[in-house]
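Lecture notes, part 5. Sequence design as translation. It can be helpful to think of inverse folding as translation between two languages: the language of shapes and the language of residues. The source text, in structure tokens, appears below.
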């Protein structure tokens, strides 16, 4: 048995956002042999959020990068190993052992926590791919400063769109939110700020038909959702916040997903593969909040720990 256990980790956590890092803090403190696999850009989506105001304990708000950096330092402080050799190519079972297939070889563990998060969805209009990096962006924190004194459009009406539109007012002279409805989906406090902001304008009930330009983005072709009437809106850049897609492509054959590709779990965050748990935004039914992802990370870690200790016969029951 001991021989068979060689080279088998207790738990592999896939994804280094708040859910994965929180799971890492708990597993490291439980002295589990845990490894967190991280992608190139550490910290997940919140790391790209300029300011997080609704994470409890930070009444003045905190930069997304700093919040996840603190989580990471906390996890590493307790001894969590973090390695950057995502992307994951697949996951399979060999008896009680889970095998993670990565570009750099295979990893074996008794339990896996999938905390791979989600990524911005594309709008799917002509010009979007062509002008990506030349006026089309999905990240205001990364690219906003390139539009100093310019005019930018933000597409979408959710929390991301409105939060990032407000951030862009620091650089741009005008920020135009293009939304397909006549009111915003974003939370009320963000709406209040946006609707009263002197630099912000709104194009209601409009959809983007095309992103136009020559070398760079020069404008948007908009259509009214009711009349179909079209108009051109000259802009220097466009930021797209039209929803998100789960990062589960490589997990499709391993665990059950919902129709949108999010991982199905039970209340204990168990997936359809025994010993594999899902936590954070990638889980079907997640509320897509940092505080909730942290809660998921705790539950997944405790259940993964219990699963491994049961297998090894060391559980405190
Ligand atoms: P979201 O809430 O799904 O909003 C996406 C927006 O894009 C919606 O307004 C939607 O319109 C619009 N949209 C979708 N497809 C479109 C299309 N084809 N053409 C035009 N518009 C389209 O996504 P999100 O803003 O990225 O937020 C994701 C989750 O993270 C949410 O649960 C959100 O609350 C959370 N989040 C929270 C915070 C915070 O707490 N401060 C910050 C960021 C994100 P409809 O409204 O018509 O559907």
């Amino acid at each position: 048995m001991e021989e068979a256990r060689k080279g088998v980790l207790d738990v592999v956590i896939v994804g280094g956002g708040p859910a994965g890092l929180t799971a890492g803090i708990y597993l490291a403190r439980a002295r589990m042999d845990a490894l967190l696999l991280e992608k190139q850009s550490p910290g997940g989506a919140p790391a790209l959020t300029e300011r997080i105001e609704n994470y409890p304990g930070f009444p003045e708000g905190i930069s997304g990068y700093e919040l996840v950096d603190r989580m990471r330092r906390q996890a590493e402080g307790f001894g969590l190993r973090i390695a950057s050799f995502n992307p994951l190519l697949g996951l399979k079972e060999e008896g009680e052992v889970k095998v993670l297939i990565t570009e750099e070889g295979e990893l074996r563990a008794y339990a896996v926590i999938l905390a791979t998060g989600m990524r911005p969805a594309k709008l799917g209009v002509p010009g979007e791919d062509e002008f990506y990096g030349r006026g089309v962006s999905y990240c205001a924190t990364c690219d906003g400063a390139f539009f100093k004194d310019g005019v930018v459009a933000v597409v979408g009406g959710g929390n991301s769109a409105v939060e990032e539109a407000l951030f862009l007012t620091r650089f741009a002279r005008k920020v135009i939110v293009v939304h397909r409805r006549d009111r915003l989906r974003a939370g009320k406090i963000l709406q209040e700020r946006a609707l009263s902001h002197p630099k912000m304008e709104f194009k209601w009930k409009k959809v983007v038909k095309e992103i136009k330009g020559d070398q760079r983005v020069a404008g948007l072709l908009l259509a009214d959702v009711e009349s179909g009437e079209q108009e051109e809106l000259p802009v220097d850049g466009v930021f797209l916040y039209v929803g998100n897609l789960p990062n589960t492509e490589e997990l499709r054959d391993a665990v059950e997903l919902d129709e949108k590709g999010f991982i199905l779990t039970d209340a204990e965050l168990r997936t359809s593969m025994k010993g594999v748990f899902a936590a954070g935004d990638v889980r079907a039914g997640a509320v897509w909040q940092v505080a909730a992802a942290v809660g998921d990370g705790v539950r997944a870690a405790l259940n993964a720990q219990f699963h491994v200790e049961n297998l090894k016969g060391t559980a405190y029951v």
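The translated text above is only one of many valid answers, since several sequences can fold into similar shapes. The chain has two domains: 4-119+244-312, 122-240.
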